[in-house]
């Protein structure tokens, strides 16, 4: 068969067979053949795809030709596939292979870590407890028959001058002999090296304008300007198979990952992290490692949250204050002051019966204990993750990545014209002076503040909506609507707020990208950290501002009847129900948190599937048996990983972490919903990476980056926030003060009457007098009650002052905040002191590896001298 028609090696021919099984088998053979060049030997390390049009701009063709010519000059080998060979009949492919000598040269330049010796300390350092634990079977463990344990090696940066020190290399007849060149470098390492070359090759000729030439390079820009439609490494093959993994074994690494990790039925199994790292690279591996660790840490607090909620359910009918509101013949018939101006009328306290019962579910002593547990949990989570991260850094050879291995961003080199000699490497590098950095950061910060103010303006509009909607609903003639006015306005405002959040997210991502580019960061890690920080600030204000408003501002600055605060556009501010604002906070939190998770999961499943179906439909229509549906075309039809990589995945989880920790005192079920979401999220992400996305570039990373600092900041805010919610939003402290300071029988009987103040309606401001007081129901109203601790001043009619109970409660609230924060800070310090950042066995293994690296260096030098003396004597 001609290579222009069927792109398989010459020794594999397409044959006509009878039966769908034989056809499927032959198709699989042909697909496997498309993982290499036509000679059947050279691996395809990268693929460049483009769809030429009849009236295509000649500049695109010139760029491709120049770019590919420069790739060949750089040492790469290319092979082309015309559009007549593709199933859709319109896509051309350029296959890229990195030859052996080029691979060795760049492996040394990029400090690729290679194995020196088998780790002989790992088993020795295992404790008796660890050995005993391994003997107990666990349903969560992966089957060792399907996934045998891989050997762990001590490693060192690759160096061609001492190649025989690495495992798999021997020195024979004055030459270094590689036992297996196909497996010496992993596919991830090969694709990373290939991308480094692709990212630095120019696509303009040298005779072009110098300034223009310096900025026109890299495959990323060619993809952005549609010169190439896609650039990607290949998957290993199909992710599904007709045979059993247990009986026949894996077809390829992708098939293994799907069966053990991405398949929904494996939701309860541990993740094969080493295999994920080997297939997708360290950056993706660290993300899934962190996500799995975070999810497992949620299990105990999710159980504790459910216990706190069950306690509320079990004791809801024993709550004295809500029982008084619902059943006491005197208290339930208290005439309450209108909740808004003019349109609202008087109402009976019994109207808030359901509201007060629901509030108790989340405002009870168990919730306070749970908030303390969550504050301590956040500290444990961060400290134990640091230990786990130290293990990952060592096991995956990324401990010194940011210091020794990371290279300068090509975009930085292109955009910065100044040069200076690096005092460390003694090489000339791009340089941004301090005054330029300061000006760029100042400009970026100013624009950032402006757009954060826009986010707050959007939140302000939702607050106005709540105020106006509450007034309209309270003035409704239908009692079923009027009694649920606060509930309806809270739910509708939360839904509107969720929609605004999702819309603003798309806009602010572009703003953050522009500002980060403006700052000119030297390395990819610095760029990602700066971008992440800006986006998190946007998201923090976007997601949490409305919740902070309900938790700490709503109902706190209303004033009192006769003297309402009207500083907000001359509007009377929102009031809380007599049972408090906690249930509104819970509603807002639940809708935003759970709604966001549902929308994200649906989006992450449906959008990639629709994109893959849409792009592959033309190829699937092709019925010609003359054409192989090649691996490179199948991968081309897959969705591309977002340009920002794992940013969206991390951001989703960190925002969730904020919901779980900052506001958990108001919503103890948050850890449970987070746990359920994350169990699904792991498998959704795994399915997406394995089946729906092109294989991403296997990037290296040392840790989760700036996200750890953000998590630490959220944990610190959570301590203050939960202390303030318990003290100032819930009724926990006022109830304690009443119980031990004002209750004659040391019970909460009479607390409702204690928490309400009386107001003489003759002192209402004109705009506050109800238009429809409904005298036929309430009779001649002379006074009404409202939430607060006020008493009239006999010396000045119409004036009301705070009672002594108010000052007692305020002092108790402040004391609680101080004690709560200091207790948590002390426990956090204790955890940090008792839990070292790096496990002892990792320290020893690092020392052992450094020792072996030095020994290898001295040994290589000694062997080299012996060879030189031997060669000299033989000559």
TrEMBL record:
It is found in: Cell membrane; Membrane. It comes from the Eukaryota. Residues 276-849 form the Anoctamin transmembrane domain. It is a multi-pass membrane protein. InterPro entries: Anoct_dimer (IPR032394), Anoctamin (IPR007632), Anoctamin_TM (IPR049452). Signal peptide: none annotated. One of its GO terms (molecular function) is protein dimerization activity. Keywords: Cell membrane, Glycoprotein, Membrane, Transmembrane, Transmembrane helix. The keyword Transmembrane helix applies. GO terms for cellular component: plasma membrane. Residues 36-273 form the Anoctamin dimerisation domain. The chain crosses the membrane at residues 287-314, 365-385, 445-467, 487-508, 529-552, 654-676, 704-728, 805-835. Belongs to the anoctamin family. This is Anoctamin.
